[in-house]
Amino acid sequence: MEKEKRLEETVVYTYCPQCRKKVTDNNFCVECGAKLHKQCNCFVLHKPYDCGHSSCPGYSLLIEMAEK
């Protein structure tokens, strides 16, 4: 029980700018899918990055970057 309590205390919440629900502070809202921050913690590039998309392009981002 105490271990669960410690994990719960480390969760950071924010409010979605689109649906206004309280959600965990990730790249996208788990309720409506809206982007929560201008820069995502990009799992493809392993760093904060603003790809300009409203939804995650995933590994297609590498193809886009190579074509620029």
Please give the structural blueprint.
Blueprint: H1 2-9, E1 13-15, E2 22-24, E3 40-42, E4 47-49, H2 60-67
Antiparallel strand pairs: 1-2, 3-4
Care to give the gist of this entry?
With 68 residues, the chain is α+β, with helices and mostly antiparallel strands. The protein has helices at residues 2-9, 60-67, and strands at residues 13-15, 22-24, 40-42, 47-49.
User: Level of helix content?
Assistant: 10-25%
Could you tell me how far the N terminus lies from the C terminus, measured between alpha carbons in angstroms?
51 Å
Main sheet makeup: 2 strands, antiparallel
- Determine Rg (CA atoms, Å): 15 Å
- H/E order of the elements? HEEEEH
Write up what this structure looks like:
The chain is α+β, with helices and mostly antiparallel strands. The protein has two domains: 1-37, no CATH class; 39-68, no CATH class. Helix content is 24%, strand content 18%. The strands form two sheets. It has a two-stranded antiparallel ribbon. A two-stranded antiparallel sheet has the order 3-4. It is elongated and about 40 Å long.
